[in-house]
Amino acid sequence: MLLEQNLITADMQKHSLTFWWPVECWVSVFNKLIRRYKYLEKGFEDEVKKLLLFLKGFSESERNKLAMLTGVLLANGTLNASILNSLYNENLVKEGVSAAFAVKLFKSWINEKDINAVAASLRKVSMDNRLMELFPANKQSVEHFTKYFTEAGLKELSEYVRNQQTIGARKELQKELQEQMSRGDPFKDIILYVKEEMKKNNIPEPVVIGIVWSSVMSTVEWNKKEELVAEQAIKHLKQYSPLLAAFTTQGQSELTLLLKIQEYCYDNIHFMKAFQKIVVLFYKAEVLSEEPILKWYKDAHVAKGKSVFLEQMKKFVEWLKNAEEESESEAEEGD
Length: 335
Known about the structure:
By secondary structure, this protein is mostly helical. The chain has 16 helices and no strands. The model is unreliable at 1-18 (pLDDT under 50).
C-alpha cells in the first residue's frame, strides 16, 4: 500500500495536480495510473470506498466534483459499481448526503454511457434493487424515489427503478401464488390476494393472467406421453378455470392467455396436440370468449407452431363464425 501511495503521489506531483483541476484532468490521470500500474486497480477501488464514507468532510462543491469524477470512472470501467455500497452508510443516508451525491454521480455516468449500460453494471454487482436505500427507511418508496430523481433531471433512472420494482412485485406475486396453490387455498382467497397485489403494484390484468397461467401450469408433474398429457391437462385446467376466468375480464387479457397457451404448447412438445382442446375447454368454461379467439386465429397469433395450431382450430373457428352469423340473423329477425 505504501508503494501504491508513493506512485500516486509522485504522479500527482509530476502533474502539479490540485483538487481544483477539471474533472477531465482527474479522469485522465487516474486512467493513466491504472493502465500503467494494473495492480493498483483493487487498491484504488478500496480507497474510493473509504473516501465516499467521509463525504460529510467535503464542501458541497467538492462533493459535486467528486460525484462527477466517480460517475465518469464508473462509465469507463476504472471503478466497479460495488463502490456504491459506501453510499448506504446510515449517517450519509440520514442527512441526505447519499441521495444528493447520487444525483450528480448518475448524471455523469448516464451522460457518458446510457441507462442500459448503467443498469447492466448495477445488475452485475446485485445493486439494481438497492437504489431506494439511498433514502431513510420511511422514504423508501417508488413514489418518493421517482419524485426526487425526476425533479433532479434523472427521469430515466426513475423509470428504471419503477420498472425494477414492478418486475420484483411480479416475481413475488408468482412465488406467493404458487405457494397458495400448493397449499390448496380456496380460489376466492387467492383471487382476493391477487387483486390486492394488482392494485398495490399497479399490475395490469393482461400481465396478471400470464402469471396465473404460468403458476397453474407449474403446479403439476406432467405425463411425458403425448396421448395421456392432453387428458391430464384438461382435467387440471378444468379445475382451475374459475381462477383463470377471474382475470380474463378484458379482451386483451383473453388474447394474452391465448398467446401464452400457444407458446406453452409449442415449447412443451407433448402439448402440441392439446392446444385446441384447451381453447375449447376455456371457451365452454367462459374463460375465453368468441371475439378474442377469432382475432387470434385471424392475425393475432405468433409464429410458434402457427401452421399446426391454426389447422387444429379450423373447424372450431368455422363453428364459431357460423354461430355468430346465426345469432346476427336471429337478432335481425327479432327487430
